[in-house]
Design a protein that fits this description.
The protein is α/β, with parallel strands linked by helices. 40% of the residues lie in helices and 15% in strands. Helix 9 runs parallel beside helix 12.
Length: 374
């Protein structure tokens, strides 16, 4: 199988990740739940994972790295810390359901700062125009999971700081692919999965905190057990229950893999493949490709549509030819509404450090077979 669906989950994983998971299964128990060797080793591994994340994202304090089970988990913590029913919350036009559904669930008054695809200046102005004195929160993804559109989060963060408005970044598609400097961005929370650009296992995520979050779950932490309330200190306040130590060990190995490969080189590699794929796709009659004219604002994610063919059928036909992509609305109907593709959806090709031009050529050959049958 040629795997072109890394925006969902990266496959394959580095060999070091698989080794770390297997080692943790047999050697680590629960951090903070004992003074024996297996518990102490688990505590050391969890701290080492936080330190690796703090290095990669340029954070001063590893304790402010909260380990979650997904980006969705992290976003729910962040959003429910900063927003309440009726609050005016501004989001971009490219948000995932992991942002829109929690906001809907708490009854926030959501205002969409819609702007054209691959137009970062327009995106910034859209947010600036909507920032008012009664705005309680801004949430924005760094990179669209549908189109790979890189939004100007540092400048949006600056606009929020100028108005004293809290800011949450959804880095689900940018962690490990784009440079993220936590201190420079100055967001209140940055949320991300472990299983995408960080090459960790599924069931892992990170919440980078500039403030202490509210508790989404209450329970045992292995610390301050006499308290009825959750501890005030991070990361314990946001980490109730037994840790996923195999996932954490694998995530640490994934982060260290990204550190060694270097984020800039990973982005350059993925973007070169997107350029190649887009350049070939536009040569096909009836294929509409969503690509940035400015290379700096698109990641290794590329969407396209085929005239007179349902995107889901294109995806299924590619799967029959052992090409793995994703087709449809990609859990981001708002992004499709903003880009004008809600009625059709798109076929999405999303890349990782393990993809090659040979993979793109095989995808194009398979697509040509499908196009001949239209």
């Amino acid at each position: 199988m040629i795997y072109l669906d890394s925006a969902a989950t990266t496959l394959k994983k580095p060999a070091s990740v698989a080794r770390a998971v297997a080692w943790a299964v047999n050697n680590l128990s629960s951090p903070g739940r004992g003074g024996h060797a297996a518990a102490m080793a688990a505590a050391e591994e969890a701290y080492a994972c936080r330190c690796a994340a703090a290095r990669l994202f340029k954070m001063r304090n590893p304790e402010n790295v909260v380990i979650t089970c997904s980006a969705t988990h992290a976003l729910n913590i962040a959003i429910k810390t900063l927003a309440r029913r009726g609050d005016r919350v501004i989001i971009s036009g490219y948000e995932h359901n992991s942002v829109t559904r929690p906001l809907h669930g708490i009854g926030a008054h959501v205002v969409v700062a819609g702007s054209e695809l691959f137009e970062p200046e327009m995106a910034l102005h859209a947010f600036e125009r909507r920032l008012t004195d009664d705005t309680k929160l801004v949430v924005c993804n760094h990179v669209s999971n549908v189109f790979g559109y890189i939004q100007p989060i540092e400048r949006i963060a600056e606009a929020c700081r100028a108005r004293g408005v809290p800011f949450i970044v959804d880095a689900s598609q940018s962690a490990g692919v784009c440079e993220i400097d936590f201190e420079r961005i100055g967001a209140d929370f940055i949320c991300m999965p472990g299983h995408k650009g960080l090459y960790g296992p599924q069931g892992t995520g990170l919440l980078l905190c500039a403030r202490v979050p509210k508790t989404l779950l209450q329970g045992g932490t292995g610390s301050q057990s006499a308290l009825v309330e959750m501890p005030e200190m991070l990361p314990d306040r946001a980490e109730a229950g037994t840790h996923n130590m195999p996932g954490i060990a694998g995530l640490r190995a994934g982060i260290e893999f990204v550190e060694k490969k270097r984020v800039q080189k990973i982005m350059a590699h993925e973007h070169s493949l997107v350029d190649f794929a887009a350049g070939e796709l536009v040569k096909r009659d009836g294929v509409r490709v969503f690509v940035s004219e400015y290379g700096y604002c698109q990641s290794g994610v590329l969407s396209f549509c085929v005239d007179k063919m349902d995107c889901e059928i294109v995806g299924e036909e590619l799967a029959r030819r052992n090409i793995a992509v994703r087709a449809g609305l990609h859990c981001a109907p708002l992004a499709h509404k903003t880009a004008g593709t809600f009625e059709t959806g798109t076929v999405r090709v999303s890349l990782s450090v393990f993809n090659t031009k040979g993979h793109i050529r095989a995808f194009l050959d398979a697509l040509d077979e499908i196009l001949k049958k239209r």
